[in-house]
Design a protein that fits this description.
Layout (H helix, E strand, L loop, with lengths): L5 E6 L16 E7 L2 E7 L2 H17 L4 E5 L9 H6 L4 H11 L10 H9 L37 H5 L16 H18 L3 E3 L9 E5 L6 H5 L8 H15 L2 H9 L14 H9 L1
Protein name: Molybdopterin guanine dinucleotide synthesis
Organism: Gymnodinialimonas ceratoperidinii
Length: 285
């Protein structure tokens, strides 16, 4: 497989208002590795982040270059979710469904709680989604995971059962939650698919021989090594995307190609899981 010319890694956010003008944690950071150059970019809204990414991808595509773009949220749900929601086992059917259901304005205003309620109504019992502000919580969208019952979904994907510290996609709110990032992220990824068509593929659902490849990442794979390199005054999120971009850019092309093919065709996969030693070597090189 032809190597990637550029690697872009995105720390996503589900904020409902713009992030502060001054860079802060729990916002959107984009790390870019291109040759020996490593840069980090801070974006206050999802729309600003996607405008930045598409501008960069458009330029790379026009120049005939390949780009890998990683996002730090799950690309799929536990087995059976797609069929329950869309009648198909295809993860992209969920992307399309969410792209039609989610609203996300230029200041991060969104309807994710309403969509979570709508999704929960498709399942028996209570759940599977949980976690929200007290002003939103109800018997149909509980604030606590223990209040769910009988919804029939597994708590974790296969990849998360191998990596227990990764949070389940059902948790929408409070410390470590990733569920809202999924709801607010997959619609934007679906629009990338629509924009770039056959020039774009998504790991591990499709073969990655295309000019543009999207992949799910989890910076926690290299957590200790990354934290050891955070200097006083730096924001961990910014350091993570910089070093993760460096790691994947430095892995041998054939090894990275093999990683992109690993994983579950319905649930998705965390790129690089099981290859931490190679990634760490590339990161510190």
């Amino acid at each position: 497989m032809r190597p990637f010319d550029t690697v872009m890694m995105v720390d996503w956010s589900a904020r409902s208002t713009p992030s502060p003008a001054r860079p802060t944690k729990d916002a959107i950071f984009i790390g870019i590795a291109q040759g020996a150059d490593l840069t980090v970019h801070y974006k206050r809204t999802r729309h600003a982040a996607m405008a930045f990414l598409t501008e960069r991808i458009d330029a790379l595509r026009a120049a005939g270059r390949r780009v890998l773009v990683g996002f730090d949220f799950p690309f799929g749900y536990p087995r059976g979710f797609a069929r329950a929601v869309t009648g198909r086992d295809d993860p992209f059917a969920v992307w399309e469904w969410l792209a039609a259901a989610i609203t996300d304005d230029e200041k991060n205003g969104n309807n994710r709680w309403e969509v979570a309620l709508r999704l929960n109504a498709m399942f028996p019992g209570v759940g599977p989604f949980w976690g929200c502000p007290a002003t939103v919580a109800s018997t149909d969208l509980p604030a606590k995971g223990r209040l769910r019952e009988g919804h029939g979904m597994k708590e974790r994907r296969a990849v998360e059962r191998l990596l227990p510290r990764a949070q389940p996609c059902w948790k929408l709110f409070t410390t470590g939650s990733v569920g809202s990032q999924v709801l607010m992220g997959l619609p934007h990824l679906q629009r990338l698919r629509e924009r770039y068509g056959a020039d774009l593929s998504v790991s591990p659902f499709e073969a990655g021989e295309t000019p543009i490849v999207l992949a799910e990442i989890y910076p926690g794979l290299l957590d200790a090594a990354i934290k050891a390199q955070v200097r006083k005054g730096e924001i961990l999120d910014a350091v993570q995307v910089r070093l993760v971009a460096k790691a994947f850019a430095g892995v041998a092309a054939d090894d990275l190609a093999a990683m992109l093919q690993e994983g579950d065709a319905e649930e998705g996969w965390i790129l690089g899981l099981g290859h931490e030693a190679a990634l760490l070597d590339a990161m510190v090189r």
